[in-house]
Automatic annotation (TrEMBL):
Pathway(s) of this molecule: Carbohydrate degradation; glycolysis; D-glyceraldehyde 3-phosphate and glycerone phosphate from D-glucose: step 3/4
Subcellular location per the Swiss-Prot or TrEMBL entry: Cytoplasm
Residues that hold ATP according to the record: G14, R82, G83, G123, D124, G125, S126
Lineage top rank: taxon: Bacteria
Start and end residues of each Phosphofructokinase domain: 6-317
Binding annotation for substrate: T146, I147, D148, R183, M190, G191, R192, E243, R285, H291, L292, L293, R294
UniProt keyword list: ATP-binding, Cytoplasm, Glycolysis, Kinase, Magnesium, Metal-binding, Nucleotide-binding, Transferase
GO molecular function list: 6-phosphofructokinase activity
Protein name: ATP-dependent 6-phosphofructokinase
Annotated organism of origin: [Mycobacterium] kokjensenii
Quaternary structure note: Homodimer or homotetramer.
Enzyme Commission number: 2.7.1.11
Entry's family note: Belongs to the phosphofructokinase type A (PFKA) family. Mixed-substrate PFK group III subfamily.
UniProt cofactor(s): Mg(2+)
Length: 369
């Protein structure tokens, strides 16, 4: 039994397909227990800057409010990656920015609104904040979300399957234009410091080379493969590059950095295309799929995972758990300490069977002799 009467849900960091399925299941599961549910707008901004919102920053989540949202992309609550309460960005009179710890104020807001517990849905940044709030005394359960699939202690995060499916569909389309023009096409995909999206989408669509953050690359082996293919009569090639990939001895390509935000990766695909054109003498083009991978309707896999995570988060709270993250551990959903889940990022293991399979079918990673 629990004394919970009212809970809040927040979504933080980059959006991912499946967020609304979590909100749907958590809301209905909580209502079945007689709890009220509110959604906090834009991470914690709805509580920290409630006055900026016409509705005060909180949305009452009812059966009517969440009806029909399972298949919708994005999050009905809004999200932000500039609302970390531990290092909240505040602009000074002279235009410069400082970061303030607003944890105490945030906890007061939760109490003022009679919120007994929080379900925080997010990636490593939001869940690290969640662990901090838990240690500061807030009753809280985390739900792992990210298209990058880079969270430890869970076999998968929702959003990843949708991103991989869409990236594969896009790469499939590149084949026809690449063959028609005998070009090298380089496609850059998101994933931050992990290569899961590039590896899975690249393999699923049969690309010829995949460049991952986990394997610093040289382009000579890729250029050799392109030349071999041309000799065999295949005058086009497709390369899938993770945005976090970097050359041997080189740096990642950073597109920018703003106050209170992590660095933004992007641009490596264009560099790889230019270098491959120089190495092979063949016409090359690049494109970055970017935020397209976060958009659109979640796949059935991600909807189901979102529903399972949302309901499991409510069960965790009703069982008196706090400071835990729900985690996929087939065939079930488990609970793991938030501190364990956020300790480090889950990157692609170099000895995993997917990498071996890719090598077995002739895909190059740029580390070949
Ligand atoms: O973590 C999800 C993600 O989409 C990464 O793949 C990407 O590097 C980052 O977010 C982009 O963030 P933003 O939307 O802030 O540019």
């Amino acid at each position: 039994m629990t004394d919970i009467k009212r809970i809040a849900i927040s979504t933080g960091g980059g959006d991912a397909p499946g967020l609304n399925a979590v909100i749907y299941a958590a809301t209905l599961a909580a209502q079945q227990r007689g709890w009220e549910v509110v959604g906090i707008r834009d991470g914690y901004n709805g509580l920290l800057r409630g006055g900026d919102y016409p509705d005060g920053g909180l949305i009452e989540l009812t059966r009517n409010r969440v009806r029909g949202i399972i298949h919708q992309g994005g999050t009905i609550l809004g999200s932000t990656n500039r609302g970390n309460p531990i290092a909240y960005p505040v602009q000074q009179a002279d235009g410069s920015w400082i970061e303030q710890d607003r944890t105490g104020e945030l906890l007061e807001r939760f109490a003022e609104h009679g919120i007994d517990a929080l379900i925080t849905i997010g990636g490593d940044g939001s869940l690290t904040i969640g662990n901090h709030l838990h240690e500061a005394g807030l009753r809280l359960v985390g739900v792992p979300k990210t298209i990058d699939n880079d969270l430890e202690c869970t076999v998968a995060t929702f959003g990843f399957a949708s991103a991989v499916d869409f990236a594969s569909e896009c790469i499939d389309r590149l084949f026809s234009t690449a063959t028609s023009h005998s070009r090298i096409m380089v496609v850059e995909v998101m994933g931050r410091y992990a290569g899961w999206i590039a590896l899975h989408a690249g393999m699923a669509s049969g690309v010829h080379a995949i460049l991952l953050p986990e394997i610093p690359y040289r382009l000579e082996p890729v250029a050799e493969l392109i030349a071999e293919r041309a000799q065999r009569g295949s005058t086009y090639s497709i390369v899938c590059v993770a945005e976090g990939a970097r050359p041997v001895g080189g740096e990642r390509t950073v597109a920018g950095k703003s106050v209170g935000q992590a660095e933004r990766l992007g641009g490596v695909g264009a560099k790889v295309a230019a270098e491959l054109e120089a190495l092979t003498g063949r016409e090359s083009r690049s494109l970055a799929l970017g935020h397209l991978l976060r958009g659109g309707s979640p796949t059935a896999t991600d909807r189901l995972l979102g529903l399972r995570f949302g309901a499991a988060a409510v069960r965790a709270l009703s069982e008196g758990r706090t400071g835990v993250m729900v985690a996929l551990n087939p065939p079930t959903v488990d609970y793991v300490p938030l501190a364990d889940a956020t300790r480090r990022q889950k990157t692609v293991p170099l000895d995993c069977d997917s990498i071996q399979t890719a090598r077995d079918v002739g895909i190059r990673f740029g580390d070949e002799c």
